[in-house]
Write a structure and sequence with these properties.
This protein has six helices and seven strands; from the N terminus they run αβαβαβαβαβαββ. The strands form two sheets. It has a five-stranded parallel β-sheet with strand order 1-5-4-2-3. The chain is about 35% helix and about 15% strand. The N and C termini lie far apart (about 45 Å). It is of the alpha/beta class and about 160 residues long.
Length: about 160
Amino acid sequence: MPATATASAVLSVPAATPAEAAAHYAARLAFEADVSDVHTDLASGAPGIVVVDTRSRAAWDQGHIPGALHLPTARIADLAPQLIDPARTVVTYCWGPGCNGATRAALAFARLGYQVKEMLGGFEYWAREGFAYDTAAGPDQRPVDDLTAPRSGISCAC
C-alpha cells in the first residue's frame, strides 16, 4: 500500500515571492515600532519622536510611559495641532495587543498630516518587559515577564 503524503497546513496558501515578502515587511516596519525600540529612543533622548498615550484619564493615572503625552483619541483632531510639532513622528499606544485604540489614534494623526507609527504591544508590553512607568501615585515597575523579554533585562537582540 503506497504511503500518503501529508499536506502542509502552512503551505496550503503558498508563500509570497521574496520580493513581495520584502515589500510587505518593509511596509510593516514603516507603520510599527516595538516597545524596546521606543524605550531605547526615550532613554537615549533620540530626537524626532513624540510618544502619545491615547487612553482615558483613568487609564493614564493607572500607568503610562514616562515622557509620553496624554492625548485621548477623541481629542486628537482638536489638540494635536496645538501640542505636537508636525516635524516629529508620533508613536501611538493604547492598552495592548487586544485593543485597537492606538490604531485609531494613528489614523487620526495620519489624517492630520503627521508621520505616525503604532507601538506594538501597547502599555501592557511596556510593563511586561519590565520598563518603568509613571502612575498617579508615582513611579512603578514590574518584574520582567520572561514570556516577553529576557529575565536579564537586556535586549532580545531580534
